[in-house]
Design goal:
binds alpha-D-glucopyranose, about 650 residues, Immunoglobulin-like, 2 domains
Amino acid sequence: MYEQVSHSLLNKILDELKPEIRRRDLRHFYTRLGANFYAIYSLFHHLYGQRDDFEQQMVNLVEVMARQYIKRNGDLKQSDIEREQSHNWFLSQQWVGMALYVDGFADDLTGARSHLGYLQDLGVNMVHMMPILRCPAGASDGGYAVSDFRNIDARVGTLEQLRELADSMRVRDMLLTLDVVVNHTSDEHEWAQRARAGEKKYEDYFYIFRDRNIPDMFEETMPEIFPETAPGNFTFDTTMKKWVMTVFNDYQWDLNYSNPAVFIEMVDIILFWANQGADIVRLDAVAFLWKKIGTTCQNEREAHLILQLMKDCSQVTAPGVLFIAEAIVAPVEIIKYFGEDAVIAKECEIAYNATFMALLWEAVATKNAKLLDQGIRSLPDKLDRATWLNYVRCHDDIGLGFDDTDIIKAGYNPYAHRRFLVDYFTGVYDASPARGQPFGVNFKTGDARISGSLASLVGLESALLAGDEAAIQRSIDIILLLHSMIMSFGGIPLLYYGDEIGNLNDCTFLQDENKAHDNRWMHRPRIDWTKAELRNQHGSVEQRIFMGLQKMIAVRKSTAAFADYNNRWLIETGNPHLFVFLRNNPFQLNDSVLVVGNFDAAPQSLTLSDLSNRGHFEYGRLYDLYSGESPQQFNDQLVVPPHRFYWLTDHRLS
Ligand code: GLC
């Protein structure tokens, strides 16, 4: 939009740009800056307009964008232009992701590069490399406490090796996702150290207080993230003799975004990683970016404005790069991280679908899809040009973040139901085969989350121990069922490394004093490549899971109805054990896939005439895209075996 005040400021800024910037060919940069400037100016003004140095800060911001544009290499600029042309590229069903720790997956970046073939064999073409930036050897929160935002941790490699990996991925049409931990730094980061040494400039990068007055006011309304291991939200720093805001661990200092210098540094860092070849940047803990006394300090409006501003700036320099919002918050809040626009994602194009993840686990424990169905019905439609990251589990704990109202509508008591779920997955509940552990237990609120590998949570560990073949098969079926849901729901499925070969809980973390207190490490495996080889051995557990997923991925990629265009309809079936939805091919009429998942341990049936009567589906010639077979029918009853899923079409694709 053209608007006089911002435009005259833009002219002034461009006139004042340093000669070395002005001399360059910045054609595309200027067009994009012109297009986004009003939004950038308005947001920046809203956040920082009251400051005397506002104009100077705006100049600094534009310079950062311009300098990073100049550094962006030709290939990446070309890819920006291509992605502008096919702007819906990331909504395609072609993308299948995996999140992994580089050292756990393959020791280091070179190792990861040598295993790209393994990922390709499975069908994965988007890899989220969890934090690989420099961090302290001990207190690192798995890399989420960064001590240098522009360098790779020496334990996994070098910048040069990352560029080689990124190049190799580009040649293979694989997307690289990197983390930028925007909310906090390690207390060993240079900014924190300089703040500690009393430099005012860097003190202003954090929330630092002389006494407990303000911290106590904050504490009145702020929840605790790690109540067992890092209670409270402030830490007393013995060198400064002051209190620092540390929402996560005591060594993770929260950055103060009410200071524009912090915002500009972070934009610079995001663009730096975009220029190293990241196709997607995962912005960590975005719900926490703005702190206000009297609130939970999560999901504040300003946190959204900061994200919009980050997006607008990134679009000027590196428009082909997407953002993932990591906001594991209430269902109605999560969706806002796409940005509240009619069509285009104004904040992050991709967001973790934590609601779906939690609901899937609930369905596993209850063996029915009542809450799953209810919870998904309550989830608002995503924006047209945005997509979900659908996952069964990730490197973090599983939080039971569904809505209390939905729990009630599904016929349960919220408190008792959450209690049951934690008991179920931690194996306390008698009939449960799960072998997880409680995480983040808060005795004040009764809240708890769950740790444990996918395989161990669905009973594979106990089944193997008991040598119970039927139970082993049941666990494998559940693993496949859960993946069939994330592959067909709409959005990018994100697998978690090790799950594709049924990795069990790994308790070696207990021997490491830096990890022993954090049981999320039980599901952050080190891949045993000898075990991974078993995927080639017919009948092995590894082979049954790996091959199942491989086939599922291949079918997903060739099924246009699985692209993400708000083309999903939940189907009411009258059978609470089944989760059923219809996906329509957005580009072709009469091409739909009926997704049916049976969460029960007993066979269930679906009355097909109900579907066709409502015009949903013809049921004469059903064909399951996954198995390549026609499923069993009894008159108009479709029989769905225990823990099975179907991807049904009413015509056979040749
Ligand atoms: C995110 C990460 C989590 C980390 C936290 C603090 O939630 O996923 O692993 O502990 O941020 O950085």
